[in-house]
Amino acid sequence: MSDLENTQNNGDYSGEQIQILEGLEAVRKRPGMYIGSTSARGLHHLVYEIVDNAVDEALAGYCTTIDVTINPDNSITVIDDGRGIPVDINKKKGISSVEVVFTILHAGGKFGGGGYKVSGGLHGVGASVVNALSEWLEVVVERDGKKYFQRYERGKVIEHLKVIGDSDRRGTTVTFLPDKEIFEETVFEYSTLKQRLREMAFLTKGLKIILNDKREGIEQTKEFHYEGGIKEYVQYLNRSQVCLYPDIIYCEGQKGNVYVEVAMQHNDGYNESCYSFVNNITTPEGGTHYTGFKNALTKAFNDYARNMKLLKDNEENLSGEDIREGLSAIISVKLPEPQFEGQTKQKLGNSEARGAVDAVVNEQLTIFLEQNPSVGKTIVEKAVLAQRARDAARKARDLTRRKSALEGMSLPGKLADCSDKDPKNCEIFIVEGDSAGGSAKTARHRATQAILPLRGKIINVEKARLDKILANAEIRAMITAFGTGISDDFDISKLRYDKIIIMTDADVDGAHIATLMLTFLYRFMPELIKQGHVYLAQPPLYKVEKNKGVWYAYNDDQLNDIMVQIGRDSSNKVQRYKGLGEMDAEQLWETTMDPQTRTLKKVSMDEDNKAELDVTFNVLMGDNVEPRREFIELNAKYAKNIDIA
Length: 645
What we know:
This protein is about 40% helix and about 20% strand. The chain is of the alpha+beta class. The chain folds into four domains: about 25-225, Histidine kinase-like ATPase, C-terminal domain (Heat Shock Protein 90); about 230-390, Ribosomal Protein S5, domain 2 (2-Layer Sandwich), CATH 3.30.230.10; about 415-540 and about 585-605, Rossmann fold (3-Layer(aba) Sandwich), CATH 3.40.50.670; about 540-575. A hairpin with a 2-residue loop joins strand 3 (about 135-145) and strand 4 (about 145-155). It is globular, with a radius of gyration of 29 Å. The termini are far apart.
């Protein structure tokens, strides 16, 4: 019997079960399909959609300034000085064009008809999706000497478009309040918006974007305006680095309907920081435009090295990986109809983008190298050193693989492993120091908790090549214990523990050790962070005793609450923990290791802001002191639990 016959005979599947969602009801029913999630990430995405529409006006040459404001009630206002959304009646729908834009999916000036040659956003669904997911939304359009107004509530028209006055300016103002029924979090983070708006300004040369926060007690304003566009973006990426040459290499051109813009500059670091965009939208997984860039870069530098006799005839070509060591680059293409690949739609698939970027970069980079031979020589020499280090690292990894195959997996001697062999049940504590490691080994639940004590601070991977990193005993111990391998050899299916918990002292030194470990994981095992396997333990700062009662406080506020609760008098005994080693096994278990009572902080990363993450690690862990001082001065007010003793 066929599936169809089964369905008919069961009588439980008929036309009544077919649900038709009219208009914006579909968006409210399945918001994640349109904005990714209803968490903080989705919340901020609403702002980007409205700003993207204004940026499209800038790309078309009509908008010079975008003003974004977080209002005291946590609503958002976006003002642009573009042409203003058309207000005439749409002949097909019989309603104003403004209402079409805000109430009908897949409507807008982005589907041909000459509205926009290129555009970002959700390709015509952005404004209507924001409207559907807002408690209320108001739009003001100023054009043709008039000011028009319309109001919506949860996507439905409350006031039809009407003239509310005269105006001598042009532009669109959108104000909306995210719907608490939809979003788990409805408070906007200024820093999150700042990062994305800065990126938009870099990618749109000459556009001014202003971000205001008018919420009481945290009022602030930041302006982004970069006449140099992506060249200034590369300067920003390299601001905490020592650059190998003063000028940023810039390539610009158009092939067919693809406009290509690339800026790049090498620094003396070892990490590649290349980011690709299409129509100002980030493509974290790269795609055809990034492939074209890599091909052109590898060919141009190898041809140059051969022509200048910087590579001997018997030497192999430099790999793209060697040439890109220490490279910061922005690859930006603009084309009419971008096509995306993959489940997350974060990879460009247009074949014409590859050829266009390859041609523009190869041609202009070749000219640059001919005109700047000293710069070319410097880059090739760095790439040759990278090649040698990569060969040494490969030999070290090959040796490790051969040993593993012959001798079986040899775990670090100082690892106290757990007996349960199912990774889903297991966790490993990376513990600072032998003293705390001893207490942790005594305290742990042996079946599911493994302990790996580290002696001293691990190498700062931001300042070292892979061969030096692999030579570090503490790094090797972590790699072996985790079981996944690193970099190109990484395989998350071989992970031996579901949770990797970094447990360090609650002081400045402990924070530094934790940051060194996070830097290592971020650079060489980022999937562990992306897939939610990395945590920070939260040991207490204080132990309070009174009579026979014992309380633990994890910050000063908790300590004050405890003191208020038990009363402040001479019988109170307060102990300030300077390190994990001061706690006996029972205390360590009760406060920091017991799954029933402990507090863990999951480490996460926003791939949409990967450039900002890279910059932060460069600033905090690089050699340049001044950017680090500026970062600390700017962010000190957000720091908690600082030990100044």
